[in-house]
Amino acid sequence: MQATQSTKTTVFTAAVIVAALGYFVDIYDLILFSIVRVKSLNELGIIDKTEVTNQGLFLINMQMGGMLLGGILWGILGDKRGRLSVLFGSILLYSLANIANGFVTSIDQYAWLRLIAGVGLAGELGAGITLVSESLPKEKRGYGTMIVATVGVSGAMLGYWVGEQLGWRNAYFVGGGLGLALLVLRVSVFESGMFQQVQAQTEVVRGNFLSLFTHPERLGKYLRVLLIGVPLWFVIGILITLAPEFGRVLGLTGEVTAGLAVFWCYFGLVFGDFISGALSQLWHSRNKALKVFLGFCFAMVWVYLFGIKGATPTMFYAVCFVLGVSVGFWALFVTVAAEQFGTNLRATVATTAPNFARGSVVLLVPAFKYLSGALGFIPGAAVLGGASLLVAFWAVSTLPESYGKDLDYVEE
Predict the structure, then answer these.
(1) What burial class does residue 207 get, using C-beta atoms within 10 Å of its C-beta: 0-12 exposed, 13-18 middle, 19+ buried?
(2) For a disulfide at 224, which of 130, 308, 328, 395, Cβ 3.0-4.6 Å?
(3) What is the CATH number of the domain that holds 228?
């Protein structure tokens, strides 16, 4: 193992900085469609509000479907070829796809490019968190991943500003350009020493995704990790993305936009990720911090659905902000995923887990459509959100605590 990776006392390493900037661009591109959904679809000839909703959900599913595929692909490559190859390979793919997105002239083109962009977006966070977790001392890695998340989620706010000021096509061009510019920092980052040690051990099988499903205890742990991230994507994929539709059902006194809802939610996420990461370090417990935030999220989902009927748009956006704070445990979730498994499977888990959680939108959307049709828009959302939060709380309660865990080991 490289000595520099085991003796550093600062958390502001090249790996942390590049992972944070990479996640910044990742979030910018990931959430950009939610911001420009209505404007871009209107320009492509989709005017009817119901059709805008349906086509928007279709395009989100294409993007998230790509992330499901990409999560497996990049995760396996991360354990076989290294964390750095995935970190920068994924940035290159989603940057090129988003530049191409600025030229679309039809829904079909839009859909296929969102799929390709989704594949690219699937790799950056898991590879970055794995690299940071393996490069920092075990007592400080939570601070490193906290920095990655806090910087990263603010990319959504830049996405909103660019989308409003420069138009949706230019917003895609800017996102792609930022990603390509980030590639020049590759020379300043070194591969994980832990990975290099395992890579030298030819008898160790690396990146065997199927091995997660052949060992009952390992499978149970993996599934519980996945469930922790689902509530965040219920909030982002349903409550925030469909903010205009919820605003009309809630009888708000004025129109609200998905772009502003995303902006305020992700502004809250900046604070939430910082607070949850800091608390997990101060309390020496990832699980305790996650439980507190899941409870907070449950309360804020209730406020969103039942506490602001007839409110002003300003009040609605304020609730979106606090709701964003309550789901600010994303990087903590990915950190827990990385800490639960050995070096030969760590990138596979840390990359697939957040993308399967993001990809849960593919299941959440039809489930929401069914429940809203059977129970009503608000009750359907309440049932779906409540179920995802309760299951996530159970998952956290039954996972081993991973704070301060030595990560220099392999899965047999």
Answers:
(1) middle
(2) 395
(3) 1.20.1250.20
Q: How far apart are CA 157 and CA 154, in angstroms?
A: 5
How many separate domains does the chain show?
1
Band of residue 51 on the pLDDT scale cut at 50, 70, 90: confident
Percent of the chain whose predicted confidence (pLDDT) is above 70: 97
Residue 393 lies in a domain: yes
pLDDT digits (tens, 9 = 90+) for 291-327: 999 999 999 999 999 999 999 999 999 999 999 999 9
Going from the C-alpha of 215 to that of each of 204, 212, 221, 222, the distances in angstroms are 17, 6, 10, 10
Longest distance between any two alpha carbons in the chain, whole Å: 65
Enter the pTM of the model: 0.83
Tell me the C-alpha distance between 336 and 300, whole Å. 24
Residues sharing a CB contact under 8 Å with residue 172, sequence separation 6 or more, in sequence order = 32, 98, 99, 101, 102
Q: Indicate whether 382 belongs to any domain.
A: yes
| Residue 201 covered by a domain | no
Per the structure, the complete domain to which residue 59 belongs is given by 7-183+212-398
